[in-house]
Amino acid sequence: MATSKVYVVGVGMTKFEKPGSRDWDYPDMAREAGTKALEDAGVSFDLVQQAYVGYVYGESTSGQRAVYELGMTGIPVVNVNNNCSTGSTALYLAAQAIRGGLADCTLALGFEKMQPGSLGSTFDDREQPMMRHLLALAELQEFAMPPAPYMFGAAGKEHQERYGTTDEQFAKVGVKNHRHSANNPYAQFQDVYTLEEVLASRQVYGPLTKLQCSPTSDGSGAVILAGEAFVEQHGLADQAVEIIGQSMVTDMTSTFEDQSAQSLVGKEMTRRAAQEVYAQAGITPEDVSVIELHDCFSANELLTYEALGLCADGEAGKLIDNDDTTYGGRWVVNPSGGLISKGHPLGATGLAQCSELTWQLRGTAEARQVERTAQSGGVALQHNIGLGGAVVVTAYRKAS
Length: 400
Description:
alpha/beta; two-stranded antiparallel ribbon; 12 strands
């Protein structure tokens, strides 16, 4: 089937904040991020033909209320909720509309206004969507609360038992991402920690300590997408970044049949999505220079190295030991500071990742810039996962 090319032509985001630390509401967040994205693209809102708006914690049609801060032109506004991959799911849908020839210019917008502390459920009178995952995991590792750090911590413990991965190797992910965030003015945290400080912070579950866990956050991100004709018509070629591969994968029977904590937190979903993206884009992991991936916990970053094909199963600890995933290494992973230090407002995370990679490919990431990425033919990779479940992997290259 013939498809149209899709380009990122505008990006914008707010600074990610500790919940309650700033006097703003989600319409304020959306207006700030959306206005920045429109200004970056140099287009007015009346040229946007569809909007896909992601959030997890909010009332129905909050997406419309958010978009109305940018304009009220009667366009379709679709509300999206896919747990922690909500932002990238909105991006996937906005890209799909252009890829399929249904629109010339679309908006993907995401935001979150969160409560302090660990994530909780909203409804207690019906089946929890992740109950099947939790029951399966409880047969493998001793159950603990809250669920999210338990699930990823259990996956980390399993990795240690199978491959000998050490507490220090997981902690080094936290050290790296906190160090990267020091150069990111949008990050919730910009503090740098030693390995000893990360290891000594409060234990959460398994190998995870507090400084290896992403915080709850308030914030918003926005992306303007366009087709090739729109890019040419509006003179946007110099700033356009092409989506050269994109895949969304949900749970497969292997999630439960593998009897593996790693599968239950999405490792095989990620592996399949990555393989599909590499095939679509005609690239290999070696062609990629910068990656924004879903480090909700340090354990997931290590698992994702393997699922993305950066190394074989069981070899992720060596990558972090060898500094292969930071500046000067084979890849720079999470130059933004990642979820651990930049913050994790669920609906905005995937769009913030897209924003960072767009800046990297344009060569405008300032102190965070990965030089090889901004060179001709540079490739960036994005990975965003929500349990319950969905993974979105996207590959980008500066438009030729």
